[in-house]
Specification:
Length: 238
């Protein structure tokens, strides 16, 4: 292989993100089914090939560059900022009933579904809630759907909460952190299959630095700066 071809191959490989370990078994299942479909029909086989490619794409786990500074709350997921509202935090987390700013991020089946910790600190409480599988874009999904609740205390001593919420076709929430565990902002902690939502509850008085309709990038987009008095942002589609 010539040096030029090697350089081209390296460039192509760099564009392919790594895959989350949870994805390999699903990719293998899709691939085996595809081989069977090819035995029945070329058309069915190519449909299986597309489905296998999508499965690999779904479980991609790209490297992210996370901003590092105390006070920053980073998006825990890729997706659309679908709601910013005032809502009481989940009662199971024992954070009181005072409404807090809740930022909801909706993940469709084409978004990266690896979830990341939004701030540096310590996990103080975990609570799993069994529930329904309504469309995750609906407001009532925060109370009705299957979800994993997480409360943490940041390195500055402020409490925030984040919630993994199963969606219409999601049937599995994975959470790989434990109570009393120290975590870093942007650290991978879980995964939701296959279409879902993440809610983030900011401390009282915190001002969001994203707007509804914005596309958030997990591990990179700053949702809020707890040390800033900057007013809430406005924007428009362009």
């Amino acid at each position: 292989m010539t040096e030029k071809n090697e350089t081209l191959l390296e460039t192509i490989l760099k564009t392919i993100p790594p895959l989350h370990r949870e994805g390999w078994k699903f990719i293998a299942i899709f691939a085996v089914v595809t081989l069977v479909l090819f035995q029945l029909s070329d058309m069915l086989g190519w449909i299986g090939t597309v489905a296998t490619s999508w499965c690999a794409y779904f479980f991609r786990d790209p490297v992210r560059v996370t901003p590092e500074r105390e006070g920053l709350v980073i998006s825990p997921a890729d997706g659309l900022v679908s709601m910013i509202t005032q809502a009481a935090p989940p009662i199971e987390l024992e954070m009181g009933d005072t409404p807090l700013t809740r930022i909801s991020i909706f993940l469709n089946v084409f978004n990266v579904h690896v979830n990341r910790v939004p701030a540096a600190g310590t996990i103080t409480k975990l609570h799993y809630v069994a529930g329904k599988f309504l469309n995750a874009s609906l407001d009532k999904a925060s109370e009705d759907n299957e979800r994993q609740l997480v409360k943490m205390k940041t390195t500055q001593g402020k409490e925030i909460a984040f919630v993994q919420i199963a969606g219409l076709i999601a049937r599995r929430i994975l959470c790989h952190i434990n109570e009393n565990q120290s975590v870093k902002a942007g650290e991978r902690f879980g995964l939701i299959r296959f279409g879902s939502r993440m809610d983030v509850y900011l401390p009282q008085g915190a001002i969001p630095q994203v707007i509804v309709g914005q596309i958030a990038v997990g591990g990179e987009t700053i949702l809020a700066d707890l040390d800033s008095k900057e007013p809430a942002r406005t924007g428009h589609a362009a």
